[in-house]
Each structure stands twice: as structure tokens, then as C-alpha cells.
Design goal:
about 40% helix; two-stranded antiparallel sheet; Rossmann fold; alpha/beta; about 210 residues
Length: about 210
């Protein structure tokens, strides 16, 4: 009898996780286009670079899985961006006072399936997805230089097979897209990919954009 109730409890947990996932899945999380436009000016016209912590507002903040995603994405972004920007900040200033470029990332939308949900519900927990917008502005004037968006997702089956590793890899790819955009637009303003794959992209393409929907 006790075993039956334990089994029923496990089935109930899986059902609730799957139900919760299906409700969250009704929201569309996707970039609006495949390519971010070029910034107004190349970032090299600035002397110093400041990166704010990633912001995340309602209704995503306060949800345990999304808070974990925010923490992991912040760590991924710090690893990829901080060393490069620290090197740029150590170079002699071209202006007096130095022109400061302010970089403010914000999670616009996110649905993150945590490891526990993957273990208990597998692919039934649904897909993970994140849409990150980065406001890049002149700190002194507030003038917006660029506002690129970056999107990635992890399919439910991939998350299940990897016991959540695919969900975490989604965040790493997002951070890489941001870092690539900052570096690519440093010497000249050229824009860059959002992470949303083109409809004509080969199904087996590799790279950050290829794994996005």
C-alpha cells in the first residue's frame, strides 16, 4: 500500500510538472529577426566600458528555475566578456574625460527547465528558451548606441537526454552571442546574429544560431 501511494505521488509530480510546462509554453519566446542591426557607432569610439548585472523583471523573477537561469547566465557572461573589457579599460584614454559605454543586459523572456524537472519529467517538462536584450548607451548623454537581442532555446528531448545539460548549454550560447557582438562591433559597426536561425539554414548546421529555433 505504501509503495502504491509513493508511485501515485511520483506520477502526480510528473503530471504537475508537465502541466506547468504546457501552460508556460503558451508564451512565445523568440527573437524578432535573425540579424541585429549595426550600432550607431563602433564601440572603439568609447574609452571605457561598464557592464551592469543582468536584470530580470516580472513575471519571471522569483521563479526558482528562472532565478537559477539568471545566475548561470550571469556567470557565463562574466567569463566571456569581463577579461576582454578589462583589457580595453586598461588602455590609454583618447578623451578627457573618458567616454564611457554602458552595457545593460536584461532578460526579456525566459522559460528555464531546471535539472530536477528534467530528471522527474524529462521531455514532458518542455523546452527551455531565453530572450536577452542588451541596451548599449553613452553613459554621459544616455544616447542609445545599440539595443541588440539574443535568443536561444533547448529542445525538451535534448534536455531529457542530457539530464539538463542542454538547458545550461543554451545559456552559454546566449552569453557567447553577446560577447561576439561586442567584439565584432568594436572596430567597425557591423551588427551580428540574434541567434534565431534563418528559415533557409541547413538542419544540421553547427554554431550558436543553428541550434536556435
Amino acid at each position: 500500500m505504501e509503495y502504491r501511494w509513493t508511485l501515485r505521488g511520483l506520477v502526480l509530480v510528473v503530471f504537475l510538472l508537465a502541466l506547468s510546462s504546457s501552460v508556460l509554453a503558451s508564451e512565445t519566446i523568440e527573437a524578432g529577426t535573425t540579424t541585429n542591426p549595426a550600432p550607431a557607432v563602433a564601440f572603439a569610439t568609447f574609452d571605457r566600458f561598464e557592464v551592469a548585472s543582468i536584470a530580470m523583471g516580472s513575471p519571471y523573477a522569483g521563479q526558482n528555475a528562472n532565478d537559477v537561469a539568471l545566475k548561470d547566465l550571469q556567470a557565463d557572461l562574466d567569463r566571456r566578456v569581463e577579461p576582454w573589457l578589462n583589457a580595453k579599460n586598461s588602455e590609454p584614454s583618447k578623451s578627457d574625460p573618458p567616454r564611457v559605454l554602458l552595457i545593460e543586459p536584461r532578460i526579456e523572456k525566459v522559460k528555464f527547465i531546471g535539472t530536477s524537472a528534467r530528471i522527474w519529467a524529462g521531455a514532458f517538462a518542455g523546452s527551455s528558451a531565453v530572450l536577452l536584450r542588451v541596451r548599449i548607451s553613452d553613459k554621459a548623454t544616455g544616447a542609445v548606441i545599440a539595443e541588440p537581442e539574443f535568443y536561444q532555446h533547448a529542445a525538451g528531448m535534448a534536455g531529457a537526454w542530457s539530464f539538463g545539460a542542454a538547458d545550461k548549454a543554451m545559456l552559454e550560447r546566449t552569453a557567447s552571442l553577446v560577447a561576439d557582438y561586442l567584439q565584432s562591433n568594436f572596430s567597425q559597426a557591423v551588427g551580428g546574429p540574434t541567434g534565431k536561425a534563418s528559415a533557409s539554414a541547413p538542419p544540421n548546421s553547427q554554431g550558436p544560431a543553428a541550434v536556435a529555433k
